[in-house]
Amino acid sequence: MSINATLFVQAVVFLLLVLFTMKFVWPPIAKALDERAQKVAAGLAAAEKAKAELSSANQRVEQELAASRNETAGRLADAERRAQQIIDEAKSRATEEAAKIVAAARDEAEHQTVRAREALREQVAVLAVKGAEQILRKEVNAGVHADLLQRLKTEL
Questions:
Q1: How far is residue 81's CA from residue 69's CA, in Å, rounded to a whole number?
Q2: Where is the signal peptide (predicted)?
Q3: Up-side HSE of residue 69: CA atoms within 13 Å toward CB?
Q4: Cα angle vertex 11, ends 7, 16, to 5°?
């Protein structure tokens, strides 16, 4: 065979191979490549969506944390105010109680002073009677002279 005929037959076989490949082989390969490209695109879209959702979730978490911090700070401030209020109330009650105790102690001291004065008056009256008895060298009857003794007590 001649080289031209061989070349021509090879060109026809090559052309048949190209047509066969374009008709039967290329469409399934192209379809598989398109499906793969769609899967990759869907995966990328899902990844972007997940990334956006993650970002959104992180923002919500940060907002919740900030709200929680604010609420905690508010509760702590309320607790501190309440504690200070309780302390102030306790101080005022303690001051009132101390004032009552001091007043009661003053009243008691005043009563004791009055009682001591009365006791001293009684003792002075007795001593005065004894002194008068010794001066007069006669017996003075306390029952008879009760009015005189009472005036003496009030004068003392």
A1: 18
A2: none
A3: 6
A4: 150
Separation of alpha carbons 129 and 152, rounded Å: 10
Dist. CA 34–CA 133, nearest whole Å? 144
Type of residue at 109: A
CA distance 38 to 44: 10
Distance CA 45, CA 51 (A): 10
Q: CA-to-CA distance for 105 and 42, rounded, in angstroms?
A: 92
CA angle 15-20-24, nearest 5°? Answer: 155
- Write the pLDDT tens digit of every residue in 36-90: 999 999 999 999 999 999 999 999 999 999 999 999 999 999 999 999 999 999 9
Question: Counting every residue, how long is the chain?
Answer: 156
